[in-house]
Amino acid sequence: MQFSRWLLGCLVIGVGIAGCGGVAEDPATRSLRERYVAVDPLADPISLTDAASLLEANPEDKEPKSLVVVGRIYAGDLDPWEQGKASFVLSELPADGHGAGHDADNCPFCKRRAAKAPTGIVKFVDEKSETLSIDARKLFGIETGQVVRISGKMVAGELNSLVLIADKMQIVAR
């Protein structure tokens, strides 16, 4: 009887030490997540197309533009993730459908629009302006196809892309 109480006590203490999640999260990862995930909603996001138009309006102005964009983590047939880095490709959200049951990913009109739309390369950087060396999926618990709002500074990139140095992110849809 006394042995069974002792064994039960050890089990309770062991579960308490291990916690429900098993392995404890790295405090540095938790700190980065708290730094970059928006607590309050990011207001007034614009599309990547509208963001590109802002840059095109003043091509001689090389100053990064502060803004909030909304898009989907997606790169078509390519992988949107930079392996081991807090960086990913953000694509224009599909157009509101052409009716009930519309599948923008398989619609030829929406595919053509998406192919011409700008993409954004989102980067979360450290104090030295280097992309963080932690995979964005691990840092934020995000996946391909999720809709996010990103607040940060945007500059023109190469090949119809924008580069967004992010200071906050909000997951809109999973």
Give the class-level CATH name: Mainly Beta
What's the overall average pLDDT, rounded? Answer: 82
* Tally of domains: 1
Percent of residues in helical segments? 25-40%
Q: Largest sheet, if any?
A: 5 strands, mixed, barrel
CATH topology: OB fold (Dihydrolipoamide Acetyltransferase, E2P)
Order of strands, widest sheet: 1-2-3-5-4
Would you identify the regions where 5 or more consecutive residues have pLDDT less than 50?
1-22
Structure described in brief:
It is built from five helices and five strands.
Question: How would you describe this protein?
Answer:
- This protein has 174 residues and is an alpha+beta fold.
- The protein has one domain: OB fold (Dihydrolipoamide Acetyltransferase, E2P) (Beta Barrel).
- The chain contains five helices and five strands.
- The protein has helices spanning 2-18, 27-36, 48-57, 108-116, 136-140, and strands at 65-73, 87-91, 119-123, 147-156, 161-173.
- The chain has a five-stranded mixed barrel.
- A hairpin with a 4-residue loop joins strand 4 (147-156) and strand 5 (161-173).
- The longest helix is centred in the first third of the chain and has 17 residues, at 2-18.
- The model is unreliable at 1-22 (pLDDT under 50).
